[in-house]
Amino acid sequence: MSETLENLSSETRQFPPPADLAANANVTAEAYEEAASDRLAFWAKQAERLTWAKPWHQILDWSNPPFAKWFVGGELNIAYNCVDRHVEAGNGDKVAIHWEGEPGDTRTVTYAELLKLVSQAANTLTDLGVTAGDRVMIYLPMIPEAAVAMLACARIGATHSVVFGGFSVDALATRIDDADAKVVITADGGYRRGKPSALKPTVDEAVARGDRIEHVLVVRRTGQEVAWTAKDKWWHETVEQASPTHEAQPFDSEHPLFILYTSGTTGKPKGILHTTGGYLTQTSYTHHAVFDLKPETDVYWCTADIGWVTGHSYIVYGPLSNGATQVMYEGTPDTPDRGRFWQIVDKYKVSILYTAPTLIRTMMKWGDDIPAKYDLSSLRVLGSVGEPINPEAWIWYREHVGRERTPIVDTWWQTETGAIMISPLPGVTAAKPGSAMTALPGIGVEVIDDQGQPVPNGGGGFLVLTEPWPSMLRTIWGDDKRFIDTYWSRFEGVYFAGDGAKKDEDGALWLLGRVDDVMLVSGHNISTTEVESALVSHPSVAEAAVVGAADPTTGQAIVAFTIPRGNVDTAGEAGEALIKDLRNHVAKTLGPIAKPRQIMLVAELPKTRSGKIMRRLLRDVAENRSLGDVTTLQDSAVMDLISSGLKTAK
Ligand code: WT7
What we know:
Elements: H1 19-23, H2 30-37, H3 39-47, E1 58-64, E2 67-72, E3 75-76, H4 78-91, E4 95-100, E5 106-110, H5 111-127, E6 135-139, H6 144-156, E7 159-162, H7 169-179, E8 183-187, E9 189-192, E10 195-198, H8 200-208, E11 215-219, E12 232-234, H9 235-238, E13 251-252, E14 256-262, E15 270-275, H10 277-290, E16 299-302, H11 309-321, E17 325-329, H12 340-348, E18 352-355, H13 357-366, H14 369-372, E19 381-384, H15 391-401, E20 408-410, E21 445-448, E22 460-465, E23 475-476, H16 480-487, E24 495-503, E25 509-514, E26 518-521, E27 524-527, H17 528-536, E28 541-551, E29 555-564, H18 572-590, E30 598-601, H19 615-622, H20 637-644
Helix pairs in contact: 2-3, 4-5, 4-6, 4-11, 5-6, 7-8, 10-11, 13-15, 17-18
């Protein structure tokens, strides 16, 4: 990627932290120095933020890379750290979760109530024969029981594997099989887009495909009719009747905490394994540092689903270990109307909001007038995660949500990294819109060329992690070889993240998306992110996805799928004129080599349920192929919409 373009890193705007936030920040610039002078001592100090039942005797054992052991010999109980100790400290009446159901029903769960529920669930799982080391699948909507189920597993040392509630029978059955799980925790259904959607039938089918599952624990959420099998037990007839006391036993620092499957673009899903002490150390520390969480006053809200790693690390383990008060929302952002998120921020006086660029761009598309109707003055830190946030969306987020006051932390990490790795610190960093800026204290990041050499400032290449970190994946479940091949083989001695990145003249990092998403046009490497960013910087564009399509003359040609903003006229000649204007706009911003061969105006883009654009499908359209597998699409009607409503111009 030597000849990448110059657009993103020529962004010169910079936003220093607000003075009052900087003056009271949890973490200051000193942390970088501290970590630089003794990295392991720095992490040991963060581990001491937790309560250990038995101290470790070695901070890191890296004698058998890439298999790391952190806080060797130490023992702790994760649920104790996330729940009991806050109650013991006198904070039992403090709200842990302000839960908001999609239909508008609410529940408030204090830390004392959370302790009761987690203890009851731990007792029930034990009664069902679950013991330390067993695997439990969790397939639930966004209800408090999801967090309770995860914590109950952690409490008894069972390894949970959460499967996103929108996934199919196939996806669930494969994961049950790979994890060799014996219990599933699910619900009758959950609310999505204004109506109850069923979960239990999917579980019934997936469970019937094998003979591993012994018990299915079912939460009643919607009250809809469900079929019943001999394996099923209602949550309210078991958990809610169980003894509310349970003594948490400590587990080894390297005890397996969870397996989370990443779909990946090829091959069978990878079961990413995370363990106990290091994982909790880094999720807890980063939540404290990156969001500047003040547990006494802040109301925190992460809009992710618990089925993704973001939900694991920044709804359950990070925030609860820090004693946060948080909002948890069950449903979609446009139910009952497009103001729902802002109404929730207003209602609960949310002060820290963590969401994804795809959502921010959707909100942009819906219009500035929607957030403008709500009081968002409680917000003081905004976060972004999941994909590169283009400068345009960053600025919109700051202006229309943060009302020009709040810092934005663009946080780069992966299911595999377990916790945030690259991000601004809100009280320290003068952030540039679109850049994740720098590695957090104690994290080693580098951008290298294909020879494995670090690139100078101004250069681009592959993002790698140069030092083991506490919350790193320990392996791929049951497949050490794949773990080594996937992450540790491309470059000697470093973790290959699979992302392209650039360092600007100041050394700030700009993430460019997956390296598989780089196009080769007439011998030039051009990142899809850069062209998308250029398109979205045009006032008529809400969202764009770019792919490289095979081209007889240029090798690959750039094809862009573009969603116009709501008020833009795209009928007939106006549409043709817009396409022409957009092609010229990209050429002007990035250089003529990046001018898309073709621009299609579309109403929607195909996304996975975690919000990532499925470029594979767009490539099929661009290359006039019939569509591949669309089963992981969030909304499978999207592809019909795209195929039928295309407006193309050459
Ligand atoms: C991939 C990991 C991290 C939790 C959610 C996604 C992309 C993530 C950013 C960011 C640019 C980002 C990367 C990464 N990504 N955050 N702030 N800037 N890219 O977890 O599903 O494991 O995906 O998401 O490409 O490798 P995941």
